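Write out this protein's structure.
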Amino acid sequence: MKRIAAFLTLAFLGGPLAAQSPKIIPEGKLVEDPRVEALKDLNGYFPFDVPTTVEAWETRAEELRRRVLVANGLWPMPERTPLNAVIHGKVEREGFTVEKVYFESVPGFFVTGLLFRPEGPTDQKRPAVLCPHGHGGRLQDHGADGVLKQIAMGAERFEESGRMPKVARAVTLARLGCVTFLYDMIGYADNRQLSQQLAHGFKKQRPDMEGKESWGLFSTQAEMRLQSVFGLHTWNSIRALDFLESLPDVDPKRIGVTGGSGGGTQTIILGAIDPRPIVAFPNGMVSTSMQGGCTCENTALLRIRTGNVELAGLFAPRPQGMTAANDWTKEMMTKGYPDLQHLYQLYGKKDHVLCEPQTHFPHNYNYVTRGVMYQFFNKHLGLGLPTPIVEEDFPLLTSEEHAVWDAAHPEPEGGDAFERKLTRYLADESDRQFAQLKPGSDDYLELVGGAWKTMIGYDQTVAKLKVPLTLTLNPEANASDQSVIWIDGQGKDGLYDSAGMPLPGVAGLVKSGVRLVTADLFMQGEYLGDEAALKETRSVPNPREFAGYTFGYNDPLFAQRVHDILNLIAAEKKRGVKTIHLVGTHGAGQWVAAARAVGEAFPGKTIVDTGGFRFADLTSYRHPEFLPGSVKYGDVPGLLALLSPNPLWILGEGDSAPELVSAAFQAKGTELKSSSEKALPEAAIDWLMK
């Protein structure tokens, strides 16, 4: 069937009501809507449209930082529990020392790595560098034959130290005078409490790790609580900075961070949300092209209408460098880097951003690239060393010298049971934080409301979309008075009974002369043509069953339907309507509640029929009602509590509203009603229009 090109609005004048929901789209046609096109995935195009002023960028940056924090499960920031750091097994080499490190980023969950220090006394403050790594791992070894190939192509210089490029980076930084912490990604080297196969190779959902009380990572429950490997990596990086700052020989005002590939992703994200690093070198991942292919580099909500170049821009105007290689970064010199230069120029700091073309090399953090980084850090960490800086050879560490765990320092527990314990701890700590907020308070509205705004993601892009299947009754009603937007889970057909007659409440509102607006929201009613209602949402064409691959780049269907409601509200405001009442019935209550919660404040009452729905009851991230973060931020009661500035009537929750909701409305002194009827009572309609 062909899609109809025009967005249509059907308006009914006063007079006899239709006996069924009128059809707007001609027979054989489908609705034209850009949202029905192919979903965006990690291989899309992610340009950075730089604002024209610093002020405009700072506004955008604030929204982006909240998005990054929410997506990581770090809004608000968790409690920084004691690190209980252990440093042991010191090895002395020419120009540097190496020590083994482990500490707890949260109780019982360990970060592991090697601490490289310049040789000499440790009673003076030195600059420090944090080194996350990518999928080669801390122990990446080209091998004797492999390093010869690297040398032949000009990518490495030394047969011995060139075998292990991650260690070579840390050793050289230490020799340059920097205390350097090279730490493990989850699943690599000594960080094995969560396996490499789970963190980086996850493919299929695990029914045995799904449940409302106990669950694993990548599960629907974890996604609705924004628990992810990506978020754990980010938190580990934040705590790694805490660890570096705690060392007596580190100058906390001179800390840099650099990683390549997956470590480049971690560098981008850490720099976006943590003000402590004064210089960064995120290599191999700042690109308008592929955004990171691993499950560890993706998480729900992160890159919706943004990408790695713009996220790297959050580091501005602090100095930031990178290289372009013959990979997804190969077009950076013309797509991405000029935009970052433009952004830095807004601050008068164009020379603080660098992208060096190295497109004769494939994806790398090799000897040549490391050399670019050393020069950049020498300048911006104030090392004061003569240039050029040349990396020198060193004897490789032995396996025993690399290993963090030994008989005196036994490896901690891991596996499925630990994974469940970790996700439970994270959930309990999050719940504890929100329990400390007073419902209805400014802090509650800022933190919980701010999270819901990010989760829904209503911005100027979606605000420009039209709602094509809109039905207006009494369109000539006094535009300056009031209107009702009534949304039903069955679309506009839901305003009619099984006999095809308008519901009593609908008929009563129309006869009273009020302007009433309803619609088929996205993928409702006429959107579907002859197809049945959706049982599951679309996903990107990736065989790995991971929500982040789809919802890290695309709005969930729940959010898209809320966008439609917000656009209906905007249209009524544009008409000059002063008071807009909202009604959500038969599965649309949570959409209407979200629209009232995240939109700009406006006068009007709200009727929400929840039907007892809870996000926590969902068992699949493909469910049409799935929304990442919905359980973390209070589920339906937490959402309803955000409506406290306006009068609310709740159906489906019994004769008493949930305790959290009651407390919020009591704090605001706003009218709240709750009734157990399954159908919208006439009294609710009367209340609406008083």
